[in-house]
Amino acid sequence: MAKTKIELKNVSFTYQPETPMEYQALNNINLKIDDGAFTVLVGQTGSGKSTLVNLIDALTQPTSGQVIVNNHFLNSQTSKKEQEIFRRNIGFVFQFPERQLFAQTVREDLEFGPRNLGWSQSKIDDAVMKALETVQLDSKMLNSSPFSLSGGQKRRVAIAGVLAMNPEVLILDEPAVGLDSLSVKQLLSILTDLNQRGVTIIMITHYLEMITSLVTQIVALHNGEITFDGSPQEFFKSQTMLKKSKLLAPKSVQISREIGLSSLPLSIDELSMELIKQLKNGGRANE
Q1: From CA 112, how far away is CA 103, in angstroms rounded?
Q2: Do the bridges between strand 217-222 and strand 38-42 make them parallel or antiparallel, or are there none, so unpaired?
Q3: What are the DSSP E strand ranges found in 146-261?
Q4: Total-model pTM
Q5: Which of helix, strand or coil describes residue 72?
Q6: N or C, where is the chain less crowded by C-beta within 10 Å?
Q7: Mind listing the pLDDT tens digit for each residue in 58-85?
Q8: Largest Cα–Cα distance of the chain, in whole Å?
Q9: DSSP, res 105
Q10: Cα separation, 125 vs 110, whole angstroms
Q11: How does DSSP classify residue 209?
Q12: By the 8 A CB rule, do 155 and 102 touch?
């Protein structure tokens, strides 16, 4: 049985409470994310996705309830110092993370996080090289200005800056926005590698097509409440859920429905394998 990495118990969050602008973003959320999971959060704008990941990263505190990560607890009474300890093993890649690049060289950018953690120079050097290798960038780039790189390279440098702190949990907010197809493929390769190494990944995205075969858990939110929590197969079976989340099923699922397959292949490769199996069985795969 998988070990729970992250748990939210009866978590609610209200923006600007007791003011005319009061707004409840999350209402009594209960959620478990397993160690090593690849979890995707979906839902319309304003559904509560960003608030949820901000709580998991202790960027803010719940109005009520508690968040538990690695046996560290976050609630409305948690101190700032405790919040810093809470997020020590969590990495957060924000939308357009390349906008957060600031140093004169790639090396300085990558060293910034580990240095703030008080690591020795030898440990920082090892972490920087490992992060560069993970995001598939050459070490010759270390002395380059991050602002001289391509858009895809900048994003990978920004991700490497998060990975250099060796997080056990990685949160990404729409990481593929603005990237070309080659950069998206490179990003998926990085995330696949990280997840296979045991990093728990939580991603907000509307681009389910690109990652469906990697995902182990889909969590759908609507008006601050969880409306679905389960496997991709279960999610894509529900036309109602797709419509509510304003999402399209992957092409492989759409095609399988059109040709009457009983299974729901989550990628074109899986669909091809299923069709080959049917042909070998004389079209009797679904009987």
Answers
A1: 9
A2: parallel
A3: 169-173, 200-204, 217-222, 225-230
A4: 0.89
A5: strand
A6: N
A7: 999 999 999 999 889 999 999 999 999 9
A8: 67
A9: S
A10: 10
A11: G
A12: no
